[in-house]
Amino acid sequence: MNRRWVSVLAGCAAVISLAACKYPELPQLGGPSDATGQVDGSTIDASLTDAGMIEQSCAGYCGAIATNCTGSNAMYGSQALCMATCALWPAGTMGETTGITRACHIYHAGAAASSPAIHCRHAGPGGDGQCGDNCQGFCTIVLGACGSSPYPTATDCITACNGFIQNPQYNALQTTGNTFACRLYHATAAAAQPAAHCPHTAPNSAICQ
Hints:
Strand content: under 5%
Number of domains: 1
Order of helices and strands: HEEHHHHHHHH
Structural class: mainly alpha
Shape: globular
Number of strands: 2
Distance between the termini: 62 Å
Helix content: 40-55%
Strand order of the largest sheet: 1-2
Number of helices: 9
């Protein structure tokens, strides 16, 4: 093997190692995809992977999801909550359609322009099985915003989250009630105002009961 390929492989190994270390307790799982361009039953629009389509920034993401996901598909209570939540995700690679990354959320925020019922929750804070599963998305936000309170570890958070009532499906209108959706809303609020909202993400939340 020549020196050029040794150098390339060494660089790749370093990148892989760094990626693997980012969320050791929250593996970035997404929905199934294949070479036909299908993700979770919806067709990927290849044009949306163009970096020029949506700015790869929190401002670009939050602008797209605010435009494309409204009413019962709204994912954030305000632009400020969207920006604060987005800041907790790693950038990722533009065009990727799975994983708890800004790039994945950007892709689905763009795809929501034509299919909001499918893509808004994928683009939203939970990920809904595409940009992470909902409990992974929830715990990534809560641990990033709140530290070790109310959940000492990622395992504690995931275990508690798996016990939350999953209906109704999440949207930003679900601010009360003993549900996962209520706690996810307050996780996004905690990203901007942790002291006020981190307690509302807990299993014994005074608001989400």
